[in-house]
Structures are given as C-alpha cells and as structure tokens.
Amino acid sequence: MENQKHLFNLPEEIHYLNGAYMSPNLKAVEQAGLEGVKRKTNPTSITETDFFQPAEEVKSLFGRLINASAQQIALIPSASYGLMNAIRNVPIKKGQHAITVNEEFPSDHLTLRKFCQDNEAELKVIRPPELIEGRTQAWTEKIINSINEDTAVVVMSSIHWMEGLKFDLKAIGEKCRATYTYFIVDGTQSVGALPIDVNAFKIDALVCASYKWLLGPYSSGLAYYNEKYNDGEPIEYSWMTRKDSHDFSKLTTYPEEFGANAMRYNVGEFSNFIALPMIKSALEQILNWKPENIQNYCFELLKPLRKYLVDKNIDKDDDYLISAHLYGLFLPENVNLKNLMEDLKANNIHISARGKSIRISPHIYNDAEDINALINVLDKHF
Description:
2 domains; seven-stranded mixed sheet; 11 helices; single chain
C-alpha cells in the first residue's frame, strides 16, 4: 500500500504520529461535514427519509468492517454511552464477579466499577507480568485463567490503549463463551486500523468512538450488540427507536414496542445530518483500503524504529504481538520523559505519553521522514 497523505490536509511541517489521540480529517470527510452543515440552511432539503436511511447505510458499512449484521448495530454518541447500554443488560448472580485489565481506559473501568458497586460484586483487575518480552502472551493467559463460571462479564479494550499490546481476543472470547460470561470490547483503539471479527472472536458487544481509527467526527460512534441484547433495556426511550417510527403519522400513538434487533440502543436524534455523512465517507474509504493493509503499511513503516530499538538493546515484546498503528514504547530508566516530550514538540513531532511509555501511533498519511525524525530525537535521549 502506498502513502495516502494527499487525501488529508495535514500541515507539511509537522510529523503527526498521534492518531490514537485523534485522527485528522480526510479531505472527503471534511467536505461531507461542510455539506452537512449547509443542508440545514434550507431545511426543505431534509426529508423524512433522511432521518433513517443515512443511518442504515452507515450501519451497513460498519457491519462489513466488523463482520456483523447491520441490524445488530446502533449509533451512539460515545463509547461510554454504548458501554453503558451493554453493561446494564448483563445478568449477574450473587457471588459472581467482573473482570477487566490493569490500567484500562478510564470510561471502561469506571462503568464496570459502577456495575460491580450496584450489584455488590467484586471487580477483578488482571495485572500484567513484570516482564516486557513475552508480556502480551503471559497477560492474555492470566486473563483467560481468571475467567470461570463465576465471571459475569469481561470488559476490555481490543488492544491495550497505552501499550498497544494485541490481546488474543479469539481465545478470550472462546473462554467467555464456554463459561457463559459476557464479553464486552471497547474497539475505539483499533477498529478501522486493525481487523476485527465479532463473530470469530465471540464478542457480545463492541463499542467504538469514531474520532480515532474510524477517521470520523468527535461525539459520535457505533456499537454492535449480538442477539443476547435484542430484548434488553436501553438507556433512552426515544420515539426514533420504536417500531414504525419512520411513519410520522403514528408518532402520537406512543408505541411501546421497540424496533427490531439493536435499534433500541440508538441514541436519540441519531440521524445527525452533519456527523453521519462524515462517518459514511470515512467508512467507505477504510473499507476501500482494508484494515489489514493499513496495519501492514504501519508495520513496514516502523521497521527502522524497531531496528533502532534492537540496536539500543531496549526491551520490547515480539513485533507481531504489538499493534503497528499504536506502538507503546517503554522508556529506559535514564530517560527523562518531560525533557523528551519537550524535545519532540520542539521538532514538530506529535506523539502521546501514557503512563511509563510513549505511544507512537502512525497511519497511512505518515512516511519514512516522520519515523526518521522521531528516531533522531529519541537518539539524543536514549
């Protein structure tokens, strides 16, 4: 796959290696948003069909991306919103517990903690091993071995949001299915840049904000809920999630029945005339590129960085176990993180610091010049 920077409007002088913080807009996504803003200037251009059809198109595209039926997908304003819809419908018995991983994304941890408090259940946080090499596999094994018939739910990100470690979701999902444990995944950190299959991985619910690897706008996202959730209780009681809501003549009949499958989990006013065209444009481009090609491009791009780390004898896990689009690098003890980040900023290199590591998150708008600039600064501190 070739570099695609020409499809973005990133300034030439910056080295933006921070897609895990927020993606830049594709030119096409920016244009779709501007056109969406203009539509409301003349509201007669917005028909009753526009409240529903664009949403169905977006659901279909997202379904193709994660191998799911569009009917099991809902439009959400944030990952935390989608997660709450999922967690509040998890059945739990007295004496059962919930599981998450150490240093999980705050919204995921906080939502699960509230679920445990409400149900007087223990929250088990699975910590990683102290080692760096072999860390991913050993951590995955600890997670799997912690899941049993008394585990009500496992909530975790698709990759670790700080370290980029690729947990074996398939193996975790199989253990959850065997023990009748709900498996809820936050895909915000990887969906769009790394392949994921909700059926193969036996994921019960997948939530995903759109402003990172889906290349969409902020305050919007998508969620998958499998058939277990089809009779669940949603957060909201919007008229738009009811059966036959597209028929405006029936609105004041106040129907009790929700629409089919995951329709009940849509956020109210989901037919966002600005955000939906932007998400649609982004998803179409991602499906054209294919996440596996994005991942391979980033993997090849980081080859000089990985070689540099080997030459410097800096510990890291096996390359195939760390995502290429979100590469967490543990710093040597002698490196001053504050000074390093200031030096990177002075050289127009944009990455994030998370915990004891730095997070390098490239995409197909990056090239060898970006990686070389990063290595040159790192070499002054390592």
